[in-house]
Amino acid sequence: MKTPSGDQSPTPPSKSDYDLDHDLDKDLNGDTLREECGVFGIFGHPEAAAITALGLHALQHRGQEAAGIVTYDNDRFHSERRLGLVGDTFSRAEVIARLPGNMAVGHTRYSTTGGTILRNVQPLFAELNAGGFAVAHNGNLTNGLTLRHELVRHGAIMQSTSDTEVILHLVAQSKRGRFIERYIEALRAIEGGYALVSLTNKKLIGARDPLGIRPLVLGELDGCPILASETCALDIIGARYLRDIEPGEVIVFDEHGKESHKPFPPQPPRPCIFEYIYFSRPDSIVGGRSVYEVRKAFGAQLARESHVDVDVVVPVPDSGVPAAVGYSQHSGVPFELGIIRNHYVGRTFIQPTQSVRELGVRMKHSANRAAIEGKRIILIDDSLVRGTTSKKIVRMMRDAGAKEVHFRLASPPILHPDYYGIDLPDRGGLLAATHSVEEMRDIIGADSLAFLSVDGMYRAMGEPGRDPANPKFSDHCFTGAYPTNLTDQNQVEPQPRQLSLLAEAS
Asked: Hey, what domains does the chain have and what are their CATH numbers?
């Protein structure tokens, strides 16, 4: 802008609409774990792109920032990658028409490394000397930054800030003969949690990390193999579930059929416990267990461990509903929908002025006064991260006339950050890592506060308890027992989590 004298005066920095909306979204989701990603692939089906789009719809809960599909039509690859929800792009017939071919891989993204810009949206694609190669990745590499810096020092040119791009370069630089050998050599170099679905001009490839931290399942539709993060993606298209991809397995589909490779030494699996607590859809089957039934069992165990005399059990929707059902059934206390969730809050809903922003959680949750007024209530949620939303929900319940408000979490206190694909704050941002239970209770304003114990969580999973010498799950956020090396975190000189990249409109 110009001053009256005509001199240029710098415009004071101000937040964009996106920044304000993003801040509001973070505020509304202050106590939630942020999603990972969802992957999907199909081989040999004439409607590969449309089926992949449907599969990604079912996996939308795993990431809402961006989505992409890559197909191959026996001549060339086709790619559509867009910011936003799956339905924003892939529900349109003209988009699907631009994705011909009978092979496809798809990805729905929540960024754990790399910002939300179009060049980070997956599947990532590269032209190698063996032909085109697309890869979709759920998880996070704990040595991704270290490998990236080594690759750049040796001349690699990176086009994104996603750790997934490291896999493309490792495959490209391998001197092995067959493509699958090059692919496996790349996997041997990476650490962390991953489920990969990859596409070449001849093959669909699925791979799961040696500990099985991230999930990947195999299904079949009309005789065509399908790979997906969860069984709910098979259900939506009427596909038949066949089995889980085994930890450390690399499975390849081509015109000759399938072949399975086991390139890693066998070790006890450590699937991520958060798939059961939060990430997977309740109607999915993960590791042979119904997610819905496990969450109900968490709630029942919570009732065994920390019940108090109340009138109603109230879930924090939607994440706390199955656990609240289990709590109610075990305790005999009636289940009531004391909080109603508005599913239609969008980022462009309103220009969030400061006064509106302070209303915060009421845009997504509102009290059902008829169910809670004058009653002693127990709130059930799946987890607590920062405590901001929990505090507002407790206040909302009191404002609606609740006589007592008790809070229960159907998971143990989160004490440590995650490095395998869950976007958790560093330790200083985790409420339970910096406060006692009594201090947390005081902060959120509840009459009492309790978490599910670690052993209780294992018992709800059908185990006798947690065996420290051989834990059955990746539970590091509760225990600090990380199942793999944390190479990037252990560098003598800390490396930036967000790498530089040319700013551009997306």
From this structure: 34-269 (3.60.20.10), 293-342+353-478 (3.40.50.2020)
